[in-house]
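Hi F.,

I've been meaning to write this up properly since the lab meeting, where we talked about keeping a consistent format for the predictions we share between groups. The idea is simple: the sequence comes first, exactly as it goes in, then the structure tokens exactly as they come out, then a line or two of notes. No screenshots and no reformatting. I'm using this chain as the first example so we have something concrete to point to.
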Amino acid sequence: MIKVLRGAVLRSGLAGVLVLLGSAVQADSVDTLKSFVRDVKSGRASFTQVVTAQGGAKKKSSVGVFEFERPNRFRFDYMKPYEQNIVADGSKVWLYDADLNQVTVRALDQALGATPAALLAGGSLDGDFTLKAEPDEGGLQWVLAMPRAKEGSFQSLRVGFKGRDLAAMEILDAFGQRSRLDFTRVESNVRIDPARFSFKPPAGADVLKQ
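Output, unedited:
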């Protein structure tokens, strides 16, 4: 009887230790995101993006390059299968579709808000998002970020880190569509030509202001 009780106590104690260790590890993932926003002032990476419909069917995949410089300057260059550019210059966000030769421009404060781009390139974090550590998955530490504003264009996003490096992001939009970006060749705190965050509509392009 004493051995049984002792075994139960040991198992209970071990379970408690594992819970505490798990909580500590998960708390580190939130700290990693906060450190990324606080300490990484600029960066670039290649990315692969896969978009999945609500029912789980794969809709499309694309590849490109992402660059940013805080505060509020970033650039997504989609190369395949279609050429698109999204450029934030600090006051406006420009979206250029090469096939349509069409540009859409919006004021930064209207376009950014509590968005995935704001989390990666903006300066606010706790003010725009509620953060929660999630269990490790696929060799990455994950953080769930829920936008405090309820009327936004997406429901939630998860950010994955490998060590201190940004590795992945998963976005669930308002329509139940899921996008995952996997980042490679990540460079942090690198000098980026300021011209990369400047955009001039190509000659003959239709410019739509929103």
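Notes:
The domain at 2-209 is CATH 2.50.20.10 (outer membrane lipoprotein receptor (LolB), chain A).
The chain has one domain: 2-209.

If this format works for you, I'll send the rest the same way.

G.
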